[in-house]
Specification:
- By secondary structure, the protein is an alpha/beta fold.
- It folds into two domains: 221 residues, 3-Layer(aba) Sandwich (Rossmann fold), CATH 3.40.50; 93 residues, no CATH class.
- It is 42% helix and 15% strand.
- It contains 14 helices and eight strands.
- It has an eight-stranded mixed β-sheet, with helices on both faces.
- Helix 6 packs antiparallel against helix 11, helix 7 crosses helix 10 and helix 7 packs across helix 11.
- The protein starts with a helix and ends with a helix.
Length: 346
């Protein structure tokens, strides 16, 4: 294997402790109102990676994303990781695509290379919208845990149900963000008053900041304790809705069902971009992803009708990090890992 692949294998394999990361050069720049972070190794960059981030309140400050960017830099890549405001706010909108395109347009500030664009989770929308317009100036496309159907992804976050009948383990910590995005589309009788709305959203955000990135919080007793601690800060008329949103009270899926039908997902739909992409697209997805099920990558591959797609479904990675392979599937998982590392080393 090449030195870049070996570096990636050292840090991204299931044998590597996630508490450690390689030492690289990190700096922040301002692009008008956008913050952009760059990661550089200690030699001349072999290539450039532009990261389309997932939906996370911390953006590249999230320790998991920061570690991944450091690993890419240690393997010889210059990494450009923007902080996208609506993704930081956990309420994605059409402006996110324009903000990401602005970072791409300004790439000459950091590199003369055509970048590989790498998306994480809901950042796949940003990747596809950019590639549809600027594919000739992009060196490659890698999608990790992307989505094809937003409504199906949001329903999965609430129910664990996958179209086709499969039931899977879902991450219960995302429910509040689903309700946050559907808040203005709930039945009017269920909506908070304008004076209570901001306090409710702020409480849901505090809950997310206290629980995300901590696997132990996915157990009911742990996340419910956080919810009960925050609940008194929510105005009384909106308190029940806060508790339903975090799963401390039942009813979130029923409450959200009609709202999902009313929710206009046009701006967040990747479908208009997919058939316009002609290049190779590597779709990597965790078999046990508890946020966006792996079937969404297969749906993306089917919709990328003009692209050269390859789907890599692996049990080594979920939505939030590396896992330990089962002995029975170890050889197959290591083979898939080797394929993914070769993709990331180019």
């Amino acid at each position: 294997m090449s030195p870049p692949v070996l570096t990636l294998a050292r840090w991204l394999g299931p044998w590597s402790p996630e508490s450690r990361s390689p030492d690289v050069n990190v700096s922040d720049d301002a692009l008008d109102d956008l913050r952009v972070r760059t990661y550089r190794g200690h030699g001349r960059p072999r290539s450039t990676y532009l990261i389309a981030p997932g939906l996370h309140y911390a953006g590249p400050d999230d320790p998991r994303m920061d570690r991944f960017c450091r690993v890419l830099a240690a393997a010889g890549h210059l990494v450009i990781a923007p902080f996208i405001p609506s993704y930081l706010a956990l309420v994605p909108d059409a402006r996110a695509k324009a903000d990401f395109a602005r970072v791409f347009a300004a790439r000459g500030r950091w590199t003369a290379q055509a970048p590989v664009v790498f998306s994480i989770s809901f950042g796949s929308l940003l990747l596809f919208s950019l590639a549809a317009e600027h594919e000739r100036d992009i060196a490659g496309l890698v999608v990790f845990g992307g989505y094809h159907d937003l409504r199906a992804a949001l329903r999965f976050c609430l129910t664990g149900e996958v179209p086709g009948g499969r039931r899977a383990v879902r991450d219960p910590l995302n429910q509040a963000v689903v309700l946050m995005n559907l808040l203005d589309h709930l039945d009017p009788a269920a909506q908070p008053s304008p004076s209570d709305r901001d306090a409710l959203v702020a409480a849901w955000r505090r809950y997310v900041e206290r629980t995300w990135g901590r696997p132990e919080m996915k157990t009911e007793g742990r996340f419910l304790a956080v919810a009960e601690e925050i609940a008194p800060s929510v105005p009384a008329p909106a308190r029940d809705l806060f508790l339903v949103g975090v799963g401390a009270r039942p009813g979130a899926a029923r409450l959200a069902e009609d709202a999902l039908d009313r929710f206009d997902a046009t701006a967040l739909d990747p479908a208009p971009y997919l058939a316009r992409i002609n290049s190779r697209v590597d779709l990597v997805h965790g078999a046990d992803d508890d946020v966006i099920p792996f079937e969404q990558s297969h749906a993306l591959a089917a919709a990328l009708t003009r692209a050269r797609t390859r789907v890599h479904v692996t049990g080594l990675y979920g939505h939030t990090g590396a896992g330990r392979p089962r002995v029975a599937t170890l050889a197959r998982e290591l083979y898939t890992l080797a394929r993914v590392l070769r993709v990331l080393s180019r």
